[in-house]
Prior knowledge:
The protein has helices spanning about 5-15, 20-40, 75, and strands at about 85, 85-90. It is mainly alpha-helical and about 100 residues long. The protein has a domain at about 5-40: Orthogonal Bundle (Histone, subunit A). Helix 1 (about 5-15) packs across helix 2. The two termini are about 55 Å apart.
Amino acid sequence: MSITIKEVEHIANLSRLAISEEEKGKMADTLGKILHFAQELQELDVENVAPTTHPQPLKNVLREDVSREWLSQEEALSHAPDQENGQFRVPAVMEG
C-alpha cells in the first residue's frame, strides 16, 4: 500500500510537524512500508493460536517484605542542610 505526499502533508499537519520536501518523500516511503507490513500481518492465519498477554511466562520477582531497622527521625535530619519542625526544609517550587 502506498501513501501520497498529500497524505503525508495531512498527517504532518495533524501532528503539528514541519517537514521539508525531502522528508515528505522519505516519510511517504516509510509509512507505505509500515502499512504494507500491517497488511501482511492481517493475512496471517491465527485461528489456532491461543491469545496471550506476554510471550514469556511471568513470575513475581519481588523480594519478601521484611521489616528492618531504619534511621530514626533525628538521624535522618542530622544530614539535612536545612530542617524545620522535624521535617526537611527545601526551597519552594511554586509561588502561593
